[in-house]
Amino acid sequence: MAQRGIREYTAKKLLSKYINEYSSGKFQYKGEVALISPETSIGTIAEKNSWIKEKRLVVKPDQLFGKRGKHNLVLLNATYEEAKQWINEKMGKVVKIGQTKGPLTHFLVEPFVPHTKEYYIAIKTEQDGDKIYFSETGGVEIEENWENVKEYFVPVLETIDTLNFSTVDETIKEFIKALYKLFAELDFTYFEINPFTIINNEVIPLDLVARLDDTALFWNKDKWGDIEFPNPFGRTFTEKEQFIRDLDEKTGASLKLTILNPKGRVWQMVAGGGASVVYADTVIDLGYGKELASYGEYSGNPSEEETYLYAKTLLELMTREKNPKGKILIIGGGIANFTDVAKTFKGIIRAIKEYKDKIKENNVNIYVRRGGPNYKQGLALMQNLGEETGIPIEVYGPELSMTRIVGIALKGERDETAI
Amino acid sequence: MKQLFSKESQSIIYGKQLKAVQRMLDFDYISQRKIPSIACIVDPNGSGIETAFFGSKEIIIPVYNTISDAVKHHPNATIMINFASYRSAFETTVQALDISTIDLITVIAEGIPERKERIMRALAKEKGKIIIGPATVGGIVSGKFRIGNTGGSVENLIASKLYRSGSVGLVTKSGGLLNEMFNIIARAADGINAGIAIGGDRYPCSSLIDHLLRHEENEEIKFHVMLGEVGGKEEYKVVEALKSRKIKKPLIAWVTGTCAKIFPTEVQFGHAGARAGGEQETADAKNIALKEAGAIVPDSFDGLFEKTKEVYDSLKSQHIISEIEEFTPPEIPVDFKKAVEQSIIRYHKEFITTISDDRGEEVKYAGIPLSQIIEEGKSIGDVIGLLWLKKKLPEYATKFIELVIEIVADHGPCVSGAHNAIVAARAGKDLVSALASGMLTIGPRFGGAIDGAGHYFKWAKDSGLTPKKFADEMKKKGIPVPGIGHRVKSIRNPDKRVELLKNYAKTYFPKTEYLDYALEVEKITTAKKENLILNVDGCTGVLLVDLMKSIGFTNEEIEKRINAGVLNAFFVVGRSIGIIGHIIDQKLLETKLYRTPYEDVLYTLPREEKL
Predict the structure, then answer these.
(1) Is-contact A19 A179, C-beta < 8 A?
(2) A69, A97 in Cβ contact below 8 A?
C-alpha cells in the first residue's frame, strides 16, 4: 500500500528493541510502555509489567492523532489507581479531534520521567533523500521555536556517516546517527520524537509519532514482528463497509466501499481505481459534493458473483430511505484493458433484477458508461435490462467521455456536440 | 535529449509474460513495424524458446536465463520491460541499469518499498538512464512502440488510433486512466504521439516533468496533456517549468483527487502516492498553481475533452498541426480460442468424453459435481458406477462393487501379479514401474477368468443352451469353462469368498439368473470332478452380469461393456490395491535383488548334433 501510521506504543517498542544495536551498544531505552485496549485491562497488564504499580505514570490515547495535550487528553504524574480510574472514565468516550469524531479505544501507559532538557528530532523521507530536523529546545513550543531547528539532509545514495554535524555535541551526534540508521534499516518513512531527553545514555522518548512503509513488510517481517497498522482515528466501518472489506480480502480483485453520506442521492459503482476517483471528483467539481453518498471501486477482474454481491450491497444501502427528489446510480468506468465488460455487467444486472421493486419505489435513475472488450454486448444487456424491468437506464459507450454521464445524471445536460 | 522509442527499438522482456509479448507483437503488426519490438525474454526459471504470432506468422522468441545472457546475444535491445514481482524488481532493475546497451527500463511491479524505489531513481539519474514506473502499465508511442499491456485490447488500440502517430504528448500518473485519455485525445484531437504513465507510487523513478521535457523537444509533439494526482509535489516542477518557459508548447493539465477534501478521515486511494500530506499536495492547490503558471486547466476532468479540442483546432488553424493521412491498419487474425468463443469458427474435435468434465468450477463425474458426491456421503462404489457405467447405482449395487474389490484386493505374494511386482520392486524399480509389471500379468490366465466367465455364461444362457449342452459343447471345443475349477477347493471344501458373494447376491439382488445358471453348470462339472466348482472369478463374473441386468442394461449393452473390459476392470482395480501393498512392503523391508535359484530351473538344452 504505502506509508502507514503506527501506534506510539509500537514505535517505542521498536526503538527500545533496536536503538542499542544501531548505536553499537552506546544507547539504550528500556521500553517501559504498555497499551491498554478494550480487550485488555491495566490490571492484567500490570501483572507482567511490575513498573506500572511501582512508578508514577503518564497516560494518553494512542490512536494516531496528535495535540493530545491541547485536548486535555494527557494524564501526568499519576499513581496506578489514578491512571486506572482515568482510563476507565475515558475508554469508549467519543471525542472530536479537528474535524474528526471517534471513540477512544487505546491508551498508552508509561513511567513519568522528570527531566530538564528537551530535545526535538524528526526524520522524514523525501524524493532525493532523508531530511533530519534537530533542536535542543524541543517540546510543545517547537513550532514557535522553529528557528532553533537545524536541518540535515542525507541524499539517497549516501550514508549518514559522511554527514557533517559540526554544531552538535558528541553524544547527541551519536544518537542522531543511530536513530537515522534505525529509521532507514526498518523502513520508517516518518519518525518524530518531541521531546526526548537523554540521561546517562538512557534515551527517554516522551512523545513519538512514526510511520512505516508497509510495502517493506516482506523484508522486515522478522524485525517488525507482529506489526499492527491501525485505522486512522475515527475511521470505523459500518456493517456493509465491513462486508465489502471482508469480500475484498478474500479475492485477488479489488472491491472498495466508503459511505460518505448515507442520505446522499448520488451513488456510484465505478470500475477502476483511477476512474473511481475521477467520478467522485466530477460530482464534487460540478457542485454536488453534499449529494455524494459513497466512494468505491471494483477492479482487478472480480468474478460475476463478487460484482453481484458488491452491487447488491450498494443497492441495499441506497434504497433504505426514500428521497422526494429520487436517486441516481452511476455505473461508470473507463475503457477496460482486458476485462470482459459484458461478463462483469452480468453480476450487476442480477442484483438490479433482484432489487427492481425497491429501485422503482426509490425512484432511482441509472446511468451507465463503459468501454473495453465486449462493451457493446455489455451495454446491450443493460439496455435490455431497462426495457425489461421498466427502470430508467441510460447507456453510453466510449463515444462519450467517461465523466460526461455525471453531468447528464446530475443536471440533465446532454451536450450532443461532445458525443 | 534523445527520444526513447522508434519503429526499430527492441526490448528485452524480463519475466515470462507471454500474453504481454503477444500484445506487443499485435501492436507491432498493426503499426506495420518491420521487426518485432521484442528481442528476447529473460526467464529466471529457465531458458530455450517461445513462439508467438507476428500477424498470422509464428515467430521464435529466444528465452535466456539471465539478463547478462540476453544482452550478450541482443546488444541492439535498448529497452527492458521488467515484469519481475515487487520482491525481485529492485535487484533486476539495478542489474539492468549497469548494462551499457540498455537505456530505458519499465518497472511494472506495484509495492516496491519507497527506499528501494528512491535508489533506483537516483542510480538511473546518475547513469543518465530512464526508468518508467514502478507501479505502472508503462506507456505507448503511437505507431512505434508499445510497453507491455498498455492500451488494452486490439480493438482499443484501433479505436484510439494508437497504430499511427498523432500530435499530442500525454503524461499521466495513473495507468488505469490511460485508455480513457487515449480515447479522449483521439476524439478531440488527432490522437496521441506518446502516452506515458509514470506510476502511482510516491517516488516514481521518473517524473511527470522528465517526460514533459522530453516531449517538449520532440518535434512531432505539438501540445501536451498531463494528468496529475493528489499527493506529492511533482506537479510543482511542471509549474516551475511553465514559469521558466522550459515548457512552451500548450499544456492542458488536470490533477485528480479533488474529492479528497470531502472525506471525513484520511483516505488512501488506490495509489501509494495518492494522499495529500499538506495543503500544497491537494488536487485543488495543484490545479490552481498550474493554471496560474499558464497551463490550460479545465473546471473538472470532464472539461479535458473540450480543452483538448480547442487547442487542437487552434493549432490546426495556425497550420502548426496538419491533417494526418489516415490508413487502415492490417487486421489481426482472430485467435482460435476467441473465434470458438464467438462461434465464428467450427472445428472437429479430436477427442470425445462422456464421463467427466473439469472445465467448470469443479470436476463433474457423469454430470454430478464432486462436492455433491462428497456431501451426499457417496462411496467408491458410487464413483465407479458414475465413471464406468454412467449410472447412479442403488445401494445394493455399490456395496456389491465394494465387496468385489475387497475380495479381489489380494491373494498372497505367490500369484503372478504380486510375484512380478515383488521381483520388480526388489530390482530397485519405483512403485509405478513395479505396479505396471505386476498388472501386465493380468490376462486370460491370471484374473481374466472374470471376463471369460461373464462372457461365456451370458452367451450360453442367452442362446438358450441347457447347462448340460453348454458343458458338453465347451468340452467338444476343448475349452475349459472359464470360472470353473479350483486348485484346492472343492464341493466339500468350498471357497469362503464364493460363499460370501453368493450369499450377498441371494439376499440383496432383485434377480440372480446368471448365477443360478452357472450353479446349474457347476452341478454338472462337479459331478465329473469335485474341484470343478464355480470359483471366485466365475462367481464374480456372472454376478456382475446379473448386476448390470438388474440396473437396467439391455443384453446388447451388457455385451458391449464386457467386450470393453468392464468385468476385468473390477479385478484390475481391486488387485492393484494388493500389489501396491506388496511393493510398499518390499521397499520397507529393503529386500535385495531377486535371482531365481538354479534349483528352480530345469536346464534342458538341445544337443549340438541335433541342431
Answers:
(1) yes
(2) no
pLDDT mean over B397-413: 95
Task: ipTM value, please give it.
Answer: 0.91
Question: What single DSSP character describes residue B503?
Answer: H
Do residues A244 and A228 make contact, with C-beta atoms less than 8 angstroms apart? no
**Percent of residues, chain B, with pLDDT higher than 70:** 97
Alpha-carbon distance of B202 to A371, in angstroms, equals: 29
The mean pLDDT value of chain B amounts to 93
Residue B30: per-residue pLDDT? 96
B478 CB-near residues (< 8 Å, 6+ apart): none
How does DSSP classify residue B264?
A: S
In the numeric block, the cell 522524514 is attached to A124
Q: Does domain A239-418 have CATH number 3.40.50.261?
A: yes
Nearest-CA distance from A19 to chain B in Å?
Answer: 20
Q: How does strand A100-103 pair with strand B145-146?
A: unpaired
CA–CA gap between residue B80 and residue B96 (Å, rounded): 8
Give A 115-134 residues with CB within 8 A of chain B.
Answer: 125, 127-129
Closest CA to A187 of A232, A134, A125: A125
CATH number of A3-224: 3.30.470.110
| Residue ranges in chain A modelled with pLDDT below 70 | 1, 413-419
Written as one letter, the residue type at B123 is L
| Distance in angstroms (rounded) separating the CA atoms of residues A218 and B90 | 13
Q: How confident is the model at residue B611, as a pLDDT?
A: 79
Closest CA to A224 of A209, A208, A212, A210: A212
* Strand partners of residue A254: A299
Which among B113, B149, B179 is the nearest to A334, CB-wise? B179
Give B514-533 pLDDT, tens digit per residue: 999 999 999 999 998 889 99
Contact indicator for B201, B231 with CB cutoff of 8 Å: no
Q: Report the predicted TM-score, pTM, of the whole model to 2 decimal places.
A: 0.80
Q: What is the DSSP string of A222-274?
A: HHH-S---PPPTT----HHHHHHHHHHHHSSSEEEEEES-TT-SEEEEEESHH
User: Residue A338: which of B122, B152, B267 has the nearest Cβ?
Assistant: B152
CATH of B11-317, one of 1.10.150.20, 1.10.3720.10, 3.40.50.261, 3.30.70.20: 3.40.50.261
Tens digit of each residue's pLDDT (9 = 90 or more) over A353-372: 999 999 999 999 999 999 99
CA nearest neighbour of A312 among A352, A267, A345: A352
Provide CATH 3.40.50.261 ranges for chain B: 11-317
Burial zone of A344 (CB within 10 Å; 0-12 exposed, 13-18 middle, 19+ buried): buried
Out of A99, A156, A404, closest to residue B122 by CB: A156
Give the per-residue pLDDT at B420.
97
The secondary structure of chain A in percent helix, strand, coil, rounded to multiples of 5, reads 40, 25, 35
A385: phi then psi, degrees, rounded to nearest 5 = -60, -45
Q: How far is A46 from chain B (nearest CA, A)?
A: 34
| pLDDT at residue number A165 | 78
Helices (H), B33-113: 67-73, 89-97
Edge-to-edge strands of the sheet including A294-299? A254-259, A294-299, A266-271, A327-333, A364-369, A393-396
Domain segments of chain A as ranges? 3-224, 239-418
What number of other Cβ atoms are within 10 A of residue B427's Cβ? 14
Mean pLDDT of the B259-264 span: 79
3-class DSSP state for residue B241? Answer: helix
The set of catalytic residues of B is: 271
> B-contacting residues of A 226-285, CB under 8 Å?
232-235, 254, 256, 258, 260, 272-278, 280-285
